[in-house]
Design brief:
The protein is mainly alpha-helical. Helices cover 53% and strands 0% of the residues. It is built from four helices and no strands. Helix 1 crosses helix 2 and helix 2 crosses helix 3. The radius of gyration is 14 Å and the shape is flat. The model has no long low-confidence stretch (mean pLDDT 90).
């Protein structure tokens, strides 16, 4: 297993525990599509999710999402919504060339 596969598995586990994050991700991304953007920042979408979850939270529970998941969410969106392929600019995952760390998720 390489580091990319390890992060992909951690991301899948996170997604299973927090499906509402995917719903927010899709909603916020499609909002930007409707506004006429042809490309947008995956990091901006992640930060908006953090803002919305924290602002609408209970004031005690801190919301967390690992930045390592951003490229996996971007690729998943473009795979599930092929009309928007290329909306997020992606590049080769450098973690594909690195061994798995076998460390717990941050």
């Amino acid at each position: 297993m390489n580091r990319s596969e390890e992060i992909a598995q951690q991301c899948a586990d996170y997604h299973a525990k927090h499906p509402e994050v995917w719903d927010m991700f899709v909603d916020f991304t499609l909002q930007m599509v409707r506004r006429g953007f042809h490309n947008y920042s995956i990091k901006a979408i992640f930060e908006r999710i953090r803002w919305e979850k924290d602002a609408g939270g209970d004031g005690e529970t801190q919301f967390k999402i690992n930045n390592n998941y951003a490229p996996y969410y971007a690729r998943r969106f473009m795979k599930m919504y092929p009309a928007h392929d290329g909306f997020f600019r992606t590049r080769k995952l450098t973690t594909e060339d690195k061994p798995a760390t076998h460390l717990p998720e941050l």
